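Each letter names a residue; the fold follows as tokens. Both lines appear below:
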Amino acid sequence: MAWSEPLFIIFSLSSLILLSIYVVQPTTSLFIASALSLGFALITRYIGIAFLPAALVLVFIGGRDRNVWQRSRATFTWFVFAVAILGIWLTRNKLIGGAATNRHFAFHPISVLKYSRDFVSVLSGFFIPIPLSAGIRLSILGLFILSILIPSLFAIKYLQRTKDWRRIAIVLIVACLLFVFSYTLFLLISISFVDAATPVDSRILLPILVISILGIFSAVWIIPRILRKSAFYWGFLILAIFSILIKSSDAIHHALSIQKNGLGYTSRHWQESESIAFIKSLTKNVEIYSNGNDVISFLTRRQVHSIPAKTNAGTMVDNEDFDKDFHAICKNVIENKALLVYLNNITWRWYLPSQTEIETTCNLPVLENLEDGTVYGLK
């Protein structure tokens, strides 16, 4: 699997850390570097826009020796630096492809209750990675948050007396909180207005995990020094070791399974697939349609077309041209000896027609019944 998350997280974290240092000690180099880092995050994944509000707040805070007008001007300048790369990229897309992005605005609100439930479920899975009931996981997560929050409140009370806020660890904690809150809110907005197919899963929430870890370690570093209570530090260290130990067995078994069976489209299942083997045996001039065009293209190195979707997964709008497009494929299969390959194990693409719908919509002859798929077409 080749995913954009590693690069996206590197750029996002770089911007967060550079901005935090900028707040403590503003310099032109940190100003530009932090903006460009977030700019590269934006063109790696558009969801990086979620971090913009938090970053702008930090830039505004960073100009502590300036008046409001100077801070506002610096914040706007930083914004221009950050979005300049994205602006160039979107202009390029518009000129070449006719559209700035492959996203479309449409109102398809997600239930706040469902979003919150999924969000908390994934978050608790990050920090309590063992099979427990939802209630127990939620209780443990709550205790963990309180164990960080209560000492933090005492530390804040101390800092109010000393007015010593400009420590890098303190700024990092604030920055992490701002970034997490901004990402959480923007994700809800994005699902409701831009891409309804975005799942609230561990992949999408991975940036929150990484940023939270940075914030937690910053808190563990600074709170014992402010309160002069080393017990907090040792308690967290014991908790961290315990968390690693309880997951080690599963992690080892998972690694061994990947070594033995592979992962994703390079797994043993796909490497030994009868459908893939059949397609590899075909001549290059045979046109193919499938519900798994991406995996077939990846493993056979040939162009494969997707069957039309009934519904746009991003906007939740029904495809008005579905019947026309699908009958065109059926006609191509019958008249030009194209093939339609339906893979049985691609079940998560609910927006594509099922095998039953394919057979009732278009009475295609079955060319091959394979272990993991069905090939429709003429010999």
Remarks:
- The chain is about 65% helix and 5% strand.
- The radius of gyration is 26 Å.
- The mean pLDDT is 86.
- The beta strands are 288-290, 305-306, 339-343, 366-370, 373-376.
